[in-house]
Protein 1
Amino acid sequence: RKFSSEIYKKAKALADTLPRGITVRPSGKWQVQLYYAGKSRYIGVFDSKLDAAVAYELARECFSSFKNGDPSPEQAKKNVELMRTAAFSYSQNNDKTQKA
């Protein structure tokens, strides 16, 4: 397929819409991170950009449910685990529906 300005426009639009906290790894998989309690927190790696975007939104939604303030290190660790669980809940449910 030949390179065209239409392909460039689509690629640029895709790059411009890459949500904050989502990066592509050298393996081609998509990594999600979230800034929480003064640190960048690793959420996980996903096979597709869509899965990563959904995971980011789920983790962010979970994050917004936490009480404002400065959590203790132990509470921050528990909260990050909750964000990870929420983030992976979509991809696990998605895998089950695709296999059915």
Protein 2
Amino acid sequence: LKCCSSGGEVYDDLSTDIAHMLNRKDPVFFETTCLAYFDAAWSTMCAEACLCLAKITGCNSQDESSDLIKEGLKCLEASAKTLKKEDGTIVNSIAHSYYSQILSELENLSAPV
């Protein structure tokens, strides 16, 4: 996906990236493998992609932007399960910090104006 490096500008294949994020079928092992190698849950990285795409499309399509925000929040639900044990202990503080930042930004975008 180019969305995270586009500087917030519309780019070729934007619609392909949007369709991909809204219809992902990722293997389960992506979640923990990314956590081990990148200090980030896969679902958090997907949520960031949704966030970036929502910001880019927000001016042109409220429906698409809203769908991307919902998908991003759904991704973060998976992240929360990955990053915290049942007793609430944080599994990886770096990954949790990243998760918290993306959650805050998505919640700000989803808040009514």
